[in-house]
Each structure stands twice: as structure tokens, then as C-alpha cells.
Amino acid sequence: MQADMVAPTPVVSRFLSRLHSPERPVLVFDGATGTSLQQLNLTAEDFGGPELEGCNENLVVTRPDAVQAVHRQFLEAGCDVIETDTFGAASVVLAEYGLQDQAFALNKRAAELARTVAQEYSTTEKPRFVAGSMGPTTKLPTLGHIGFDTLKEAYREQAAGLLAGDVDLFIIETCQDVLQIKAALQGVEAAFADVGERRPLMVSVTMETTGTMLVGSDIAAVVAILEPFAIDILGLNCATGPEQMKEHIRYLAEHSPFVVSCIPNAGLPENVGGVAHYRLQPLELKMQLMHFVEDLGVQVIGGCCGTTPAHIQALSELSGDLKPAQRPCRTEHRQRLQLSYEPAAASIYGATSYQQDNSFLIIGERLNASGSKKVRELLNAEDWDGLVGVARSQVKENAHVLDVNVDYVGRDGEQDMRELVTRVVTNINLPLMLDSTEWQKMEAGLKVAGGKCILNSTNYEDGDERFFKVLELARRYGAGVVVGTIDEEGMARTAEKKLAIAKRAYRDAVEFGIPAREIFYDPLALPISTGIEEDRRNGLETIEAIRRIRDELPGVHVVLGVSNVSFGLSPAARISLNSVFLHDCCEAGMDAAIVSPAKILPLVKIAEEHQQVCRDLIFDRRRFEGDVCTYDPLTKLTTLFEGVSAKEARQSGPSLADLPVEERLKQHIIDGERIGLEEALSEGLQFYPPLEIVNTFLLDGMKVVGDLFGSGQMQLPFVLQSAETMKAAVAFLEPHMEKSDGKRSAKAKFLIATVKGDVHDIGKNLVDIILTNNGYEVINLGIKQEVGAIIAAQQEHQADCIAMSGLLVKSTAFMKDNLQAFNEAGISVPVVLGGAALTPRFVNKDCSEVYAGKVIYGRDAFTDLRFMDAYVKARAEERWDDRRGFLDGIPEGLSIGGDVDAVEEAAGEVAAEASEATPEAAAVTATLPVSSERSQAVPVEAPVQPPFLGASLLEGPEAIPLEEVITYLDRQALFAGQWQMRKSREQSREAYEAELQERAEPILQSWLERVRSEQLLQPAVAYGYLPCGRDGNDLVVFSTDGTQELGRFSLPRQRSGNRYCIADFFADLRDGCPTDVLPMQAVTMGEEASRFAQDLFQRDAYSDYLFFHGLAVQMAEALAEWTHARIRRECGFPDPEGLPIRDVLAQRYRGSRYSFGYPACPNVGDSRQQLAWLGAERIGLEMDESEQLHPEQSTTALVALHSKARYFSA
User: Fold this and answer.
1) DSSP bridge partners of 885
2) Residue 764 and residue 144: Cα distance in Å, rounded?
């Protein structure tokens, strides 16, 4: 067995020597390779032809100069590590381009290119390193997209190529599935074994904005699952900016035994005109990562999507100035030092600590073919849903871990284990104990279980070979292991023998690399209920063995199959005996038990007499007179429970069967529970038509699922399970539908495809599942679909609706092109656009302007479902038109392209009406000449004297006291305008004011309190003063030294009356030079306000959405008033002490602020240059290509402090 323990020889690693050197330097990885390559404007020919366009990995052959140019950019910027251009160079990804046979060669070549460039820049003082990049592929093994062995082999081949090219380390990055990480790690280790040497390993996971990985794993699960592996660095990259990573990084810093890395995007991506925009500037990225380094001990940093050489240069400057905070981490793998890691098992979703507070680790025992007739029957019938139902019952009984045993003579145990575990891992949020006497079955389960499992069990019954084989599985897959006290002589009966076997196993396991904290000893609870003399001491010997194992083998755990002790007794007697035995074992030190919690009673519920008899039996306290037994506790216990029925001591709440049939049907969908589904449907059919069951109760359940998914409370696999349950329900009801009302089984046809150049299909397939299971026929064309293929499919199938999906930002551009092609092909059916890169504004405005029909923003699969249901209904009632859409108005919750323009057009009409009282007046005004002469009503005044020139930022509660801002809140605009609590025609002013005090004010105070406690509003201000001067109707703005013209505002002038123009409120230019100063301001309530408001809307919390959104908008206006008052004060025109808010709102102060879009300065786009001059991006404020400010609750303004400055319409 020693041969199995030989690991690849560790080469003296330059990288690890640098990482763990006494200086503990902060090492900087490079930035976004893909972003940098895109900026080179490469053509299809550069990639090797149109069929290979977008395959960056092939550039190492076709354009190696471009790849090396990107490497050089980042090395020039000062990074320590460059990554190879191999993110998607696994064969399973290259197969999308027909390059799967080139995997080894492409990886080797990429490593060689990077190595050559790195050596050019490497010095003794600043060595440069090459990391072999290995991406997540496009397959999620947990969801069954690809087999474990296939994925492992792809990673092994990729790693072999990178090793041949001489990388310094490996980075397995952007990981979205923990099972994928395990396959990658095994593949890399296999490559190490092939060449006989190893390199450092780094794993970087991607946590979505939901707070978990794509398959639902939280950060605690990630640490628990990966702790057993020989990796050197564990951290995060991609998906979000550093702000969203903060809590995850904090957890890693406190609990991970590895060096921590953080490689964020340059903020959250935003879609601006089909292009990804990342707002986080280099300095901002540097400042945020500085906190991670200084306070949390992060030692490896870098940049992902949207980061440029400028970002990396900023990080390189940081690395030279800072030392990471001290935190313990492993520098070698053999001992697997625990450090601050808390030992735990894990499902794919979350971790479960081995050490439970106020409890032992409860391992649910009912999913066990060896001990359950019901499970054997379900297994033999291959009723997987029934078996999952058994597993789900263990969750309801509060089990912490789920024991899974499929040992059943005559069946293919490996196949059974695969089939069952595949279903359990996505349906049950519990870690698994894989239980079998055959290691092959355990491995079959390990290959489909992404979490951290416990293997049950190994022993010395067949000598060392099987014992070490199971240990090898535990080490390779990162599992805990149960060791039974059995050796070549059989099961140990005495405490002394049990301890001796335990010590032997302890020595062997620890030397093999399994730490004591991962060992669970099973001292074997043998029956004490047989009456056979040699069995009488089984209970007390087991309890003594537990005590000695815990005392003499520090760090280990003890687990017991408790119910074995009572084998053969009546069910009622077993419950009492098992409960007392469990209690006494825990007192002796047992910390885990395989038990059915529903069949255990707390001691307080067991009569004292019964407890005493049970203990007498456990400790063999028979009484004798001579050779005659006068008291046998076994006989006494049997007598006590003779004729007593066993009742489960606990219930986990009402079962589905207890609910009314309507609620039961809905709950079946929410739970994804198929056990009892057909019975519930049959009962439902007695009261309701099948279509009503589908459209009311089942779809209500799916709506709840959609809400849970959208709010992050339900993970993707559970959504799929609910969809599958819906599918089963619809399939059951379909024959009844056809029989009763002749409805066709498909409501409509839905054609869906992922667009050209995009290989992501998870979201598209989810839409397919949801719609298919709701009665729609879905034609799923797959990924990378050219527009010609989509048009051809539409012409063939005549679908009622087309959907296009894309995850990449470049996909959005293809979508717009496709829409134009649809026009040319005469297609006019509605088109749903979905994918992470899309925004409602982009779809509803940019895309709507292109397509002759209607476009719909598909936020998620349930949006698509809602649209299709409303669309089908409207068509049936002849209330839908392909060009005009819904003829009776857009249904609530849907967002249809074109409605944005309608709103803006209406706003324009209102403004026009406000500025022109009558058509006759407008006609007269239009005939007057346009003048550029200063208004005679505006005399020249002395220029403003500001406290500084340039821009300044205000952020945080000290700079912007929220309570001061609240004093500027316009309640009338809030209550009547935003909240639409308007005075009725019959209501007096006094009654209306009283109603507002009674109804609106308490709501306002409640929300203000919530804003304070939850920090929902994060006000920030960019304001400042720049030299300026009037030039006719233009206001010209200069640099702070007055020498360079920055830009100008061309402003309209009234053609009659006072002929006001904003430019008149400033002094004229003198010889082309500035003579005055322009105050400017830009304020925002922060991204959190927009995010929270959107979250309320997505959760259908419409009233809360109305209240909060309106408050946030008006608080932005209040912040603008507060900032304007600050500017007045700084320039020598403070407001009178105690100026009431009504006077502020009535503009009873000197000067005015003019926001772009109003008649006096109507060009909204002019705000763009103002934002640039103020550096407003530093407070997260920007303008998109459609001239909308983001975040939404933001406003900008020019400020004039002239004594005659007032609002007016030009």
C-alpha cells in the first residue's frame, strides 16, 4: 500500500518561495485578457476563419503576436503573474469550434508564449510568473451536463499541455460548480502523476450577485468542500466587483486555511448600447482592494472583466506599498493543518459542522436498502421519486446528514448509487454519507456528489487492501471516513479490542494523509436483545469503547448505528431502549449517530421506570440468586411494552396530506414533491376541470417558485425540480384535458435559440423546461445559432413567438442585427430577449427601435411564461396586434418594447403645453427673431468668489448628514406626486392635510426609519466650481487655471418678455478669457436605492415599491436642495437662519439651480460633459447612451447665483 501513498515530487517552486517568503508580498495577477483582445479589433481571419471567430484560445496559433502584446501590456503595468490564453482550452469547450483534438497543443503553445514574455520582464527583485488558466467549461456536472470522468480527462489533457509549456502554477478559475472543481483538481493531479512532479494550485470561485455560486453553493460550503485538497490559494473572481465580494472574502479570511485571493471585475457590468460598461475606475479598485489586503490579509489580487492595464498598474502600486494583515495559512499540504477551519461536511448548497451545538450530528438512517424493506421495494421498482421522498422526510425530521445505502442483492449497485445520488444532491440540502460494503459503489456516488461526503465505511476485515482503498477515495475526493472496529478476526466485542483496532486505524489513516478530525469511529452497536449470553455485554462494552476512544485518540469522532442495539424488540420497546442508549453514548463522548430522529424520544418523555429498565439491560444488571436469574431487564422490558403501539415521537408539522387539495396541489409544485402528486391530482379532478387545476393551483405554485428564485431564496436545481414536478402533473392531466374539452396539448409554439458566438445555454434551457411544463411546444435550436438558421426554423415551424438568449455582451449586438434581419424576412411575431448582458432599457428602447414587431425583455423564465400566457389569451380574444402589441394595455408585470418611448413622448407633450399657453401665442413667438444680446432685465454683477476651483466629492454620513437632507424633503411632491395620495374634488384642504398626517406621514416615518437602519439610501455628491464666461447665448467653461476651454453650453433664450437666457446670469468673456465662475453639482442616492427598489418590484411588493421608489426620487431632490444651499453658503450667500422648508421650495433665496431637460436648458446630453468635469464616476454616477442618469435616483444641475436668477421657460 505504500506505493499508493507516493505523491508527485514537489519541484522547488519559485512562485511558492516568493508567496511564502518572509516579506509576504502582495502578488498581482493580470487583468481581463478577453477585454484586452477585444480592443485589438481582431477580424474573423485573425481567429482562423468565420467558424473560429471568438475562439480566443486559437489566437496562440493564428495571432501569437496579439496574445503576447496583451501579456506585455499587463507586465508593463507591473503585474507579477500573467495567465495563459487558455481559459476555454479544455477539449470539451474547444469541441464547440471543432478543435478538440488540438487541446494539448494549444495549451502548450499558450504556456510557451506566456513564458517567453514573462522571462523578458522577470528580475531577481521582481520575478514574473505564468499561471496556467483553466476555466469552468460550459458544462455543469452537478446538473448532468457532463460526466465526471469525461470532465476530469479534459482537465488532465489541458493540464498536461500547460505543464509541457512550463507554467509556474495552475489557476482553476471562474468556477460555478463544486463538482467541476473536483474534476479539475483530479485531472490536474493526474497530470502531475504522469510527469512525476507538481506545481502550485490556485482555485478561484465565482459568487453571483445572489450570494452563491451558480449551482447554489455558499462560501461556507466552498471552504468545507475544498479544504481537503492540496491547493495553495483559494479566492474569488468574476461576476461582481469587490464591493459584492466583501463578505465572502471576509469569510475566507476567517475560515479558509489557504492563502486568500481576490480578482474582481471592475464593478458590476452594465449594458450601454450593447457594450459592457464597467464603472469602477483604477483608483477606486485600488482603494477597495487595499481594505482586503490591510484588514483581511488577502495576499493575491488582480483584475477580471473590465480591468485594463491601468487598473493593474494601480494594484501594482498598492502591492509595493502594503503588507497583508497576518493570518494563518498552510504552506504545505501533507499535514492538512486545521488552523481556523471548522471541520464540516457539506451539501452542494451549504456546510454542516461536525460539532453540533446542544446536539449530536444526526445522520438520517431511513434511506438504507440494507435496513429498510420500503427502500428495497422502491429501489427494485426504480421509483427514484419515492426514494427522494424518503430522503426529504429525513430533512423534515431534522437530520444533519443523510445516509445513502443501495446495497441490494441482484441489482447493479453502482448504477443505483449514481441514479439516486444524482437526484438527491439537487433535491436535498443535506450532506451525504455514502454507505456501502463495496468501495466501487461509494466512488460511483462521489462522482456525482459535489459536496463533501462521509464514506461509511472501511475496516480491516479483508486486511489492509480494502482499508486503504477507501482511504484513497476519501483523500482523492475530499471526504470524511467511517472506520468500523473490525479486523481480520472479525467484529470486536470488548472495549479493549475495539480500542486496539481504533489505534491501528488512527496510525494508518493519519500517516496516509487523513487528519484525525475526518475520522469517525464506529465501535459497533451490537444487539443486546437476543438473550444470548455473549450478547449481554454488548451495550456496556460499546459505551466504554466510546469513552476510551475519545480520551486516547484526540480529535476523532465517534458514530454509531444506534438502532442495532434493540434489534428484534417490539417497535415501542425499541424507541425507549434506543433513546436511553443514545443518551448514555453521548454522555460517554459519542458525537454522531445514524438514527431516525422520529424514532427517538427525549428522556423527559420516557418514564423513570422505563429508563431504569433500559439501563439495566444496557449495563447487564441482571440479579441472581445462586445460578437462578431473579431479575432479567430484557424480560421486564418486553413485558412493559407488550401490546403497546409505537407512535412517532415527533412530527415536523402538517404533512401535505393534511392540507386542502387546492393548497396541496400548489405545495407539491413549490416543494418539487412528486410523491402523492397523482393522488392529489385525482382528488382535484373531482372538483375542478383539469385546465383550471393547471392554470390556477399549479401555476400559482410556479409563480411562488419564480418569486423565490428571483429573490435568491431558491436555487437553480430546486427550480428545475419544481419544473419537473409541473411536467409530471401536466402529463397526468393531459389525457383528461383532451377527453373533457378537446383542447390541444400545446397552447402555442415557442422558438428559442442562443445567438451566434455564444455557447451558454443554461438560461435558455430553463426557459424551455418552464414553458414546456406549462403546456407550450418549445422548439429549442441550441447554441451559436446564426440568424439564417433561426429564420429558417421560424419559416418551417411558424412559431407564435421567438426568443433569443445570450450571456455575453457581444451577443446583444447580434440580437439587434437579428431583429433587423427578421424585418427583412417578413417576420413580425413577438420576440423575447433574455440573458445576463441585457437590461430592460436596452431591450425596450434600443431593440424596440430596430424591430417592426414587439420585443419583450425576458428577465427570467417566469417573465417569459407570464408574457406567453397573456399573449395567448389576448390573441384568442383578438386583442393582440403584432405591430401594436396588447390592444387593451400591457398586463401588469410585463415590460414591452416601445412603452418607454411612449412615456417620453407624453412627457414632451406635457412640457410643450406648459411652455406655450395657446397655439396663437406659439405662432407669434415663433416669428420673433432669435437674439444673443444680454437681457436688459439682467444687469452685470460682480463674479462669484468660490472657496476653491475644481471638483470635490462628499460621501458618507459625516460629510452628508442624512437628517439634514431629510429637512429638505418636499412632502407635497412626495405624497401627491410620487405616492399619488391626491386631494379629491369633494375634500377640503384641511381634511386632505389631516388625511396625509393620518395615513401618509406614518408611512413616511416608517420608511425613513428603515432607510436609516438598513442604509438603503447612500447619498453622494460631486460638486465644484470652474472658470466660465458668457459668449452670446453660450456659457463657456474653462480649466481651473483658465487657460483651456473645456466645453460650452448652448442655451436657449426667450424670444419675448424679459428674454431670459441662463448665460446672462454670468459675466461676459474678456478677450476670450473667463471672468466668472460656474458652480455645478451632481447628486445621487446611490446604486443601492435603485437595486432595492428593483428588488421590491421583482418580488411583486408593489406598494412598498411605490413608497420606496418615490421616497428615493424625492430624497435625491432633497439632496440637490441641500447641496445648492451649501454652494450658496460657500459663495457668501447663506440662507437666513431657520429658513422654513416652504420658503426654500418657493425659492426664497438668492440664485437658482437648473437641471438639464427643463425648458431653460433642455439638452439632457449636455450633462455628460458636466459629469466628466466633476469626476462624477467616482460616486458611481454616469449617463448611458440613451442619456439616462444611473443610478436612477440622481440629478445634476448648473447653479447661478445672480440676484435675478429665477426659473423660466425658454
Assistant:
1) 881
2) 16
